[in-house]
Amino acid sequence: MRLLLIEDEPDSLMGMKKAIDSLYNVEVELHTSNNAEDAREVIFKHYPELIITDIMLPGISGLDLIEEVVNKDYQPKVIIVSGFDDFEYARRSIRFGAVDYLLKPYSTKEFTEKVNRTLSMIKEEKELLQYTEQQKTFAEIGTRSMRDNYLVEFCLKRTPLEEHLYHRLCLWNIDWIVNKSFSLLIFDVNGYPDGKPFTEENQLKTFVIGNIMQDVIQDHMHSLLFKDTKNRWVLLTTIEDAEEIARSIHKKVKEYQKIELAIGISTKVSSFEEMHAAYSSTLKEFQISSLTNREDYVKSNHLMSTDLTTANHLASLVINKDEESIRQVVKVFFQQVILLDGLESRDDITRKTLNYLSQILASISEKTSKELKDIPMSVWEKVDECTTLEEYEEVLSEYLTSVGHEVSTHATNSIIERAIQIIHSNYMENLSLQMIADELSLHPVWLSQLFKKETGQTYMDFLTETRINKAKTLLRETSMKVYEIAESVGYQNLQHFGTIFKKRTSQTPKEYRYGK
Q1: Is the whole model's pTM more than 0.70, yes or no?
Q2: Residue 459 CB partners (closer than 8 Å, separation 6+)
């Protein structure tokens, strides 16, 4: 316990110090001073919990010093020592919270009793504060535990949103999962699709992963982290770009802890009742991801969704001659065949493989308008001879790569040309990449990559540039009001439009209109 003695008379200070040193029931970190200036430095450096000061000091008085340093954030216990029996001194002492008043001359016994009583008071207050904080912490832990148990239950079975549940969500400040669209993500150490063993090392890994995740999402208001029944981290978030937040978490965990993560990401969930379905589909993606060795998360992130192993998506990769992605998707497809479909018979896998290949060829023909031959007999024979998943993967990947070299590369350019046409025709609407991908029968992740590759811009940059260029034309060539122009090019928020416009042109819309 920190204690400061302030006394300008050397004998009195020495006597007080000896009395303090004689205390046996409490450890004291003792500081002394014989003037207010030095005492002020000690106070602001050590913030003693008890200050014993004489009133009459060189320079300013002890009362003035205490009144100066005491505030709402620092309220030490104070014992005033005085050689004057003046009520005004006592009144001022009481006003700033002095707990005792010692009138000279006093006995050592009287002094030590007052000090002991005050130190005991400080100790009791500390213990009470600590107890209160502990109870508060226990209550928070209990509340969080109850909340997380409910969330796990929502994930494991479809739960109707009844009134009592909504009140609980409001109480926990997570009613946004009812009022807003959100994504659900699952994270854990790679290589454990069904949950890692319960060991001290794995518990530590879970802890550090959670800390890093919490650090990444701390600035996002509507984001919530909890653990499922297999000790995997589940993230609910309204963040628009869930893949970007997952990428950031993956990068930091690998950089700081050298841990490779498996990740599953859901599509946007628009209602509370969809949480179970979102969790179930995301868990399947996570399990596939967990069986996939990934050095580059950005590439493999495309492969975590079951939808991305569809024949339609793989056909797009073949047209684009993306050999590495073809191999990755084929690998995930076969993992999915075993993990999700539960196929174990070689005949079943062969039949599934050939059906899949037929769908891919049909999709390629539709996208390129080029009639492809049926599956060559040589490929049939190779597939029929396969005995391991690796052999199936090799045969399918090699054949699809060869098909990619046969089809016209013009198909890729025509896809982007069509995407640009859609943007030019619909830029004024709430146009998302998903909408364009649906129109073109492509997966949005692949379309995003292809768009950047062909145009040198991201989809959002291109859409924004299109809108701003149209706005510039309207500002110079029409008398439309700025808010009308903003709405006509797809911005419902005038302030947001102004911010984007200035960022792109270094001028406000009004400055641009008048050529300033």
Answers
A1: no
A2: 433, 436, 447, 448, 451, 452
